[in-house]
Write a structure and sequence with these properties.
The protein has helices at about 1-20, 30-40, 65-70, 90-95, 145-160, 165-190, 205-210, 230-240, 255-265, 285-305, and strands at about 25-30, 45-50, 75-80, 105-110, 195-200, 215-220, 245-250, 270. It is of the alpha/beta class and about 300 residues long.
């Protein structure tokens, strides 16, 4: 009996120790969020994204495996601003995980502390087809928002694991420093093209354009989430020719038929540019995403000879 009790005490001690050292299990909706969680969480977290970076984050195919992942998660991080509203809410409900329900301690909406653009002033509902009724959800494409999101993640992880707060703070400082270095590089690369007029397929780039001085003069979609129409395309082509727009940015998950037709008509170069980590194999973390996009953009601008 005595031996049994000793064994039992040992087992309990081992289990308690294991729990103390267990990594926080984080699920994110997008790879951008997962990359930022990795920056801050290091080896104190495990992280997995539900959507892949090459998928349209508005319309992700919900898989049963997502429910299983959510069921055992300690923390769910979402982009918010209704980006995931078409696919995520039923999965959260079906996960039967009280910890990650909206408003619970294991739920983080990363948009809450970020700078959000395109916040509608009038009445806009999804019934009108606009998938951005709560402001623009593509806010992670401004590096300073990446910094604010990393800070929100640091605060959340520190609340969940107070013993690791200093570790998360040190990793935030390191990320902040590397990001600031990278921002100098990106700003310098984009400086010669300040005010350059571009058109984009979806309204994914307002924060990016704002951060790097681009002027987005129109969109292939008549409204966010609404497919191109012949009348709108004709108007857009006229405007692009009038304003000498030579760059058309397209997110990797849209059909290239209309963009290519617009490119032929206007002489603009169609540039497929990933808005997310994981959108191309080179963009494996948050800083690399901007490195990749800015290199691609600058080399394409040079090819068009606009400047
Ligand atoms: Zn969108």
């Amino acid at each position: 009996m005595r031996r049994f009790i000793i064994a039992l005490v040992a087992v309990v001690a081992i289990l308690t120790a294991a729990k103390a050292f267990a990594a926080i299990k984080v699920i994110t909706t997008t790879e951008d969020l997962a990359a930022l969680v990795t920056e801050i969480g290091g080896n104190k977290v495990t992280v997995e994204s539900l959507a892949k970076g090459y998928q349209d984050p508005h319309f992700v195919e919900a898989k049963p495996s997502f429910i299983i992942k959510l069921h055992s998660a300690d923390l769910l991080v979402v982009v918010g601003r209704e980006l995931e509203i078409a696919w995520l809410p039923p999965l959260i409900t079906q996960s039967r995980n009280a910890a990650i329900q909206p408003g619970s301690g294991g739920y983080l909406d990363a948009s809450q502390t970020a700078r959000i653009l395109d916040i509608p002033t009038g009445l806009i509902t999804r019934a009108m087809g606009d998938v951005h009724p709560s402001g623009n959800p593509h806010y992670w494409l401004d590096p300073n928002n990446g910094r604010l999101m990393a800070k929100a993640i640091q605060n959340k992880l520190s609340n969940m694991s107070r013993a690791d707060a200093a570790y998360f703070a040190q990793r935030y400082d390191d990320f902040d420093k590397r990001l600031a270095e990278a921002e100098k590089r990106w700003t310098a690369a984009m400086a010669p093209y300040k005010g350059l007029k571009v058109v984009t397929y979806h309204r994914s780039w307002p924060n990016f354009a704002d951060a790097f001085g681009l002027d987005v003069i129109g969109y292939v979609e008549p409204k966010p989430g609404i497919p191109p129409s012949p009348a709108h395309t004709l108007d857009l082509q006229q405007e692009m020719k009038a304003k000498n727009v030579k760059i058309l940015l397209v997110e990797p998950y849209f059909d290239l038929k209309t963009p290519n037709a617009i490119g032929r008509d206007t002489g603009a170069k169609v540039l497929v540019m990933p808005p997310s980590v994981g959108g191309v194999k080179e963009a494996t973390n948050y800083i690399q995403l901007f490195d990749y996009d800015i290199n691609l953009l600058v080399s394409t601008i040079k090819q068009t000879g606009t400047k």
